[in-house]
Amino acid sequence: xxxxxxxANLLEKAIGHTGDAVTEQNLTNPDRDREKYADPSGEKMKxxxxxxxxxxxxxxTYKPKILEDRDVIIKVTGSTICGSDLHLxxxxxxxxxxxDILGHEFCGKVDSVGPNVKNLKTGDRVVASFQIACGxxxxxxxxxxxxxxxxxxNKVENIMYGGRTAGMFGYSHFTGGFAGGxxxxxxxxxxxxxxxxxPEDIPDEQGLYLSDVLSTSWNCVVDTGVxxxxxxxxxxxxxxxxxxxxMSFIRGAKRVIVIDGGPAAWRLxxxxxxxxxxxxxxxxxxxxGTTVTSKxxxxxxxxxxxxLECAAGEYAKSWTHQVELLTGAETDTSEILNEMxxxxxxxxxxxxxxxxxxxxxxxxxxxxxxRGIRFIGxxxxxxxxxxxxxxxxxxDGSLNSGIMLSHRVDISEMDTLYQKFAARADNIxxxxxxxxxxxxxxxxxxxxxxxx
Length: 452
What we know:
By secondary structure, the chain is of the alpha/beta class.
């Protein structure tokens, strides 16, 4: 995949962008062009940069400056690491370049605003959506912000997918090339659209997760149509899978079964401890001859009504898919997808939220057609469609994002965090990453730890 990424970079350079973006592209680090992108004060900041496959480093770079009239510069008070970041870390997402600042989930305090930003002022507490939306195009008018037509002019994505997503923070040049929020400062294009004010009763340790994980989980559950009385099976017990379990019950699910195993099997116990109604299935403990599909059909007549994919396409189990991924014969394994398809009831629903970036082999299209399976790509979650509703749920207590929060670390140890998170070590589920601008830990949230 590393070679594919570099080839994609060269291809994009050769064929050029589509030219229809309304905000600056490919500014993943102010240090790339200090005169153009760095704040004139010369102030430096810490940031986490991708330096190559399985290599991220804390670097010192320049504070970004306001480039466009609707920009907002924020002092980052909280960021985190996501399973999606591991796809970048391992080189599974194409068009990364050495020095790109990572991080698509962050919150902070407004430092400065462009002249056309009227709804925010210096000092406001805000959370950023992980996608960058213009607020005006066909999709943005419907609050489908992740599909904004005007913030990502990457032609390679357009060719591969037949369309493009919105620009995204810290997620390679494939999604526009924007510097991310695993840093002490961040520039937010169209800040009047892509920042949500946080009220005083919502601390950063809750509000931060409106940026992605809560919206992504809610979108997975709602878009796949989880309803009253459903039996739901969830592949992956990470933060997205955990919140999907909680949200499935909020939507009226009768039973929720969470599936995981291998080095991540400890997450099943964590999820069960936080949401006791959850049932768990450890695929590594299954006896010989028993599959995930056969076990689910044993647990529920005909299988679950709904299957939710909250893992990703890079985790191959069989030698066949391991070889195909290694040789580039496919970019994503179909194994989890096929388990979901064969596990659900006839006319069951499968929702795909874990990241899949390209093409897969050995996909069971026959079962989908013959059994009437609804196979739903949930897409990158449209944060703007949900975040105000989810904020109200946090405020009234019907939703608690704290159940997934396991650690608090300082940005100075972000590189170590990537290594440990990738290894599923230290029981790290969801992390709050503080900076020099952060407030002390909110009551009931984890205290700062250090690996030094």
